[in-house]
Amino acid sequence: MTERQVSLRREGAVALVTLSNPGRLNAMTRAMWHALRAVFDDLHGDTALRCVVVRGEGGAFCAGGDISEYPSFRFEEASLREFHENEVWAALQAMLDCPLPLVAQIEGACMGAGVEIASCCDIRLAGASAKFGAPIAKLGFPMAPREAALVHGAIGDVLARDMLLAAGVHGAQRLYDAGFLLHVLPDAEVPAAAQAHAARIAALSPQAARLHKATFTALKSGGAAAQQLLATAYDYADTAEHREGIDAFLGKRPPNFRPS
């Protein structure tokens, strides 16, 4: 998958998804957006996996979009719309739809598209020297509406406005204070910490993780989605994982959540 510049490696119940664009701090090309969507589409039906770590290669997460491609398509409305709605958003939606917990391993640059990709993850850990921003106003264009709404919802109003209106770039501690990051760690500890967190998730009930993610999505959407959630919220009552978790607790033993 080297040509696609988005690789997938399985390590037991954990999948490692790696962004790679050497020399450009893993900036996203159009091919990478297509590859990212394909990787997450493939993950949807993989019952052996229980968690996904999303990371960048070579000490950077993702520096944004690969601007060297932009003159070839951004100056026509139809091709610009195609790029954002059917390439970028399709990949981000595939991440949002993934039933597995997603852990972002953020090192170095996390800018623009990198912030969008990180915003799709459930848990985000970053190195102390990581930098976050979306200074595209310097390039004369805004963040696409659905992408901006995603980032706004993840990092909050104050930082989203500063990033998009003032081209603000912020350190990891500021993003931690805003609630975007779970932990800020010494840079060298980030890979091990992200994989340890993923392993911790993978040892827990995959059914509970899947249903929690469905709950978060439905309640955020509201309306019919929330009503459907309430109608089906207790369908797990007579399931093996439900019984195993309680039996293990009462028997004072570790649970064994087998793949369904």
Automatic annotation (TrEMBL):
Keywords: Lyase. InterPro entries: ClpP/crotonase-like_dom_sf, Enoyl-CoA_hyd/isom_CS, Enoyl-CoA_hydra/iso, Enoyl-CoA_hydra_C. PROSITE patterns: ENOYL_COA_HYDRATASE (PS00166). GO terms for molecular function: lyase activity. One of its GO terms (biological process) is fatty acid beta-oxidation. It comes from the Bacteria. Gene3D superfamilies: 2-enoyl-CoA Hydratase, Chain A, domain 1, Lyase 2-enoyl-coa Hydratase, Chain A, domain 2. SUPFAM superfamilies: ClpP/crotonase. Belongs to the enoyl-CoA hydratase/isomerase family. This is Enoyl-CoA hydratase. The lineage of its organism: Bacteria, Pseudomonadati, Pseudomonadota, Betaproteobacteria, Burkholderiales.
